[in-house]
Structure prediction request, 148 residues.
Amino acid sequence: MRMRTFITSAALATALLGGSVAPAVAAPAAANGPGVFITNGDRVHISSTPPRTASAHAWWTHVSGPGTKAKVTIWLQMKSGTKWHSVAKNAKNLKSGNGGSARRVVARKKCANQNKRQWRTMIDVDLIGVADSPEKVYTKSVTVKCGV
Prediction:
């Protein structure tokens, strides 16, 4: 059974990660549950390295319980009309970390123009060898000068 209970306390998430952008905290739902971990990612931005791309990163932070590695998947999404469309996806098995370059996964999409578009990411953390639920986290949407 895949179970995870979310704590909606912004204070807890802020205290644990020092104010990161998109925390999602999982608390134990059963004796053999996933424990507590935080799913996180930064906002979509223009990459500092050429070519001009929309870019975002995702990572996870272990707080307590089982699981030392997780498959972290990130979808880069752009809004078209009223709907969000995934335009890039990447996944990587990662140890827990604070978002440093060795412990994060990146999603990038080359910009075709500099038209303003709404962007966000969807992030999923699946603990390896530990049952957890399929919930995903969405970062706050931002306007970026990058059309595809």
User: Anything to note?
Assistant: The chain has one domain: 5-147. The mean pLDDT is 82.
